[in-house]
């Protein structure tokens, strides 16, 4: 969990993680009733329970999600509840089943990171910003760096996720160094994938068009122009979307409402010296200092003796939450008065040096610089070197990149812990290991120091080499580990790999290293970013020369072929694979040869060259088994099964895939197992078992939905529609086909769009018409749609597949019986001249496509 400035409840009052339903008003009401019955103020209850006062207030007002059991136990003990009262208390606090909105979307479920630190002095701001967000579609929260914009936005998101029908999605733009990646960051967070020949912004707009969502775009200032353009485009195309942006400056786009977040309240200069503890707690800044200092040193209390020094610190820091947290983090090593004395001197030096800078920039630089100077030399070096990680790091990565010179490998964990304790580093814990990251302003400051020290290029090289090693670990994990493990690794490290490619390949600092990284990342390009991979592969090949090692070229060829497969460019897939086979053979890489033979064999099957495909796949299978690579073995078995099915030998096809499924399951490879089941469904359909085919495909669909792989979801939905047509269940078939069509168009999968339109045309032609008067019009539309499909598949160069031909032939026969052969021929010729948009519109006007897909 990230520990950030101006956050949520303290550690003893941790709120539930993602997936927990927002706390209900009943819980807050009951808590307040028990508190008042016990004769306690919020402050008194907070002290008894070891919580922050704001934590109690937030729970009572419904601004906090339901607390964990540990927090409930603290409250029960502090309130001295009997067994009956405790049972009622816990029953009300228990999470309920997440409700769903009208469109089926989950209500109130969000990806909001929840903070563990105190969030104080913002009740008025929370109410005002929440009102603006409810009333207006674009609200920008502005203010100085470190003022608490991010955490205020998170509080608003948490509150609204429990009270509106819109989900809340948080997108961190801080790691994005290139403005062009703003759309990619939003799409990646939402699970929207790139599709060939279509701008990602269009795909994102299509995905969000009918969804109710509050999108929080955090830290827009360094990509302000692109953020404004993207926000404007999304709002224009998505009527149910709202955006809450945080930025140091306005987006300056139409419809924008702004709210400048002020500093926390601080005492006036004339009252600071004589301020007592009770008066000091009426100011948000001093309450925050008190809470954070107590979290660092549990013996710390705000007293009449130290209240004036605390007030002086808060005034010197202009009430900026981040700076106050930094100061409070030092109470375990310095007396409060010493902190006040040093802070005052430090600000005087830094603000006097850069008159051209904005005051808030001077203040943040002073706060970070002061904290940096309090570090010992080894801590400073570690802090600087961590700035090379664009996407955070594990302790192992930090050790690989940051150790050396005066930072010993044995000290890395200690230094990470020290920086974490001093609030210069954040950590997220996933249950397995911690992932560390610098706040962006800290990262920029640390990088400046690294450049000044002359180590930036050397650290960038170390970082790129570490990224290559991680990419190779990903490749191995994909072969040997469960999907959940390698997918998490890929998602965690994506920003680091992008930064390494920028330094090595785009900026030409080490082209060969960049080429090797592109090739090693074939798993990422195949499953997460095929179009991004295509661009990198093209660049890597363009820069290839005699200095490029053969094994690097082989890897690039395999990656290029795998990317082509995602785009159904089977000829490119085959050509790239064949070259890669030769190169892998030249360097004696048996696994590389077998892996690429499988890729080439799959392309040959898709191109109808079955005999060649089976010969190549059998060679690959022998090698994979000798090498002990189980996942590759299963993949080859699937492709051999598909080749057998195309030949008409469904029994052999079943046997091949039945052997592959337990291999996938044994590896925890849920995607591979689902693909194999989908294959079996197709084989059963070829054998005349449409009901069994439907059940197998439905099982596969559930898995693809669970991992949000929309390309596979669209493909299986299309197959399900086809099976349902064969079963005569036309209403269900129409529902699946409509959803498949929408997804295929979002992703610009041209072949799948054509096949799905063919299903809809077949449904119109085959199902009984409610009105004989409407039948001729429905049949005419069906014929035109089928004519469009014929022309589109021919233009693409994609032959009709056997399994799709059955419904097509039945539909054409039915149309000819109803309208006559000549009329059908003429109507299909008209359809052949239509555009895709016209074909979809033609289908939409029919009664069979009169309702939206669910």
Describe the protein's architecture and organization.
The chain has 854 residues and is mostly helical. Helices cover 65% and strands 4% of the residues. The protein has a five-stranded parallel β-sheet with strand order 2-3-4-1-5, sandwiched between helices. Strands 6-7 form a two-stranded antiparallel sheet. The longest helix is centred in the middle third of the chain and has 25 residues, at 456-480. The two termini are 35 Å apart. 51% of the residues are buried.
SSE map:
Layout: H1 25-37, H2 42-49, H3 53-61, H4 69-79, H5 83-93, H6 123-135, E1 138-142, H7 149-161, E2 167-172, H8 182-190, H9 200-208, E3 213-218, H10 224-237, E4 241-247, E5 256-260, H11 269-272, H12 277-280, H13 284-296, H14 307-316, H15 321-328, H16 336-353, H17 359-373, H18 377-385, H19 395-402, H20 412-421, E6 426-429, E7 434-437, H21 440-453, H22 456-480, H23 483-506, H24 511-520, H25 522-527, H26 530-542, H27 550-566, H28 570-586, H29 590-606, H30 610-627, H31 630-647, H32 650-667, H33 670-686, H34 690-706, H35 710-726, H36 730-747, H37 750-766, H38 775-796, H39 802-819, H40 821-832, H41 836-844
Parallel strand pairs: 1-4, 1-5, 2-3, 3-4
Antiparallel strand pairs: 6-7
